[in-house]
Amino acid sequence: MRAAAALVAALVVAATMLLTLRLARGRITAVTAGLLAATVGASPFIESFTLSGELLASLPAVLSLLCFCAYLDGRDRGWPRSRLLLSLAGAGALTGIAVLIKQSAFDAGLAAVVFLLWRERRRGLVPAAVLVASALVPVAIAAASAARLNDWVYAVVGYRFDGGSLVTGSFAGRAHQLWLSLPPTGKALGLLVVLAAAGWRRAPLLARIWLGAAVVGVLAGGNFHPHYYLQLVPPLSLLAAVGVRTLWLSAPRPAIAAVAAAAAATFALAIPVAWATPTDQAKTIWPHDPHLVHDAVLARYVRAHTHPQQRILAIWADADLYYLTDRRPAVRYLWSSNIASIPGALQAVHRALATQRAELVLVVQPLAKLDPGGRTATLLHREYKRVTRVGGASVYRSRSHRNTKATTSPSSAT
Known about the structure:
18 helices, disordered C terminus, mainly alpha, four-stranded mixed sheet
């Protein structure tokens, strides 16, 4: 997974360089955009090392704008209509693929449509319609190939509106999440923002619209996890590269001093994280997810006290624990937002506890967080008994458990 993330990130950097070359018309500017994306844009504070949907969707999104730029250049050069339509269709299809990977990755398609309507008014209606129709093709194929269309629509669209978007849930809660996400995002992308501001006036219009569309995509996500901001890296890198060129050619000393200070602060914050121990890195990157710091020791305990065929249950969510332990989950819902949003998810947890489907239950978050009524706590204490506490999590074992051979002793596991 890390190798895949590195490969996709490298391709995103290359695509960003090509797009910058198309829009900014300068090899040095294109190389600068690539360097910024590969260094500042790869900050650990926005979890750039993870194989996230935002990272995966960035590649077809940037490629979509490359196709759109090919359409604009081809129109100026007098390409035949069939070739122009192929470029537009490619831009739309890649946007549709990006949205299928991550629903917020509509930024490239939105930027192209807004650009057409802003610059060309009525003349842009037909190419905009072609682009949108092409984007719907891969989405329609995915919907048609789903086993159950209603389930697919809910998973892709309805689930986000139930509890994972900006327009649902508590506005105060969303604002609080946004506020918590700003410090790590500032540490990661502050330099790019300063440079983008410096080059804003001289940047191509399409690049500026693209950044605005990417901001809309991040806001639409609603939960404001740090890796959501990876969507901003390609457009910010492009604009920041234009900013570097602007500063190099005609910058007042105060502007250069501000950029130098931002650069020094960015690297001063990131370098100690690179040199830290894995535990300290986890504490720095995920200060609000303490269970991620302790999952390694908790996974060792679970492996030592269960067999591979036995299931476990993490309450309310610790998806990576199932991977680290190589144990199947007792319910299909791996994230706390699943339990909070999906109809029947909480009841599935209750059924798993009532039937003792899990050999071990690991309480990594307060029981009342998603079940203030107390039904979860009642079932847990009735069907399970607490045996120990490992890495900040309370461990419960099924009351019907019979002594089985453990691979290691409890003392060595903890």
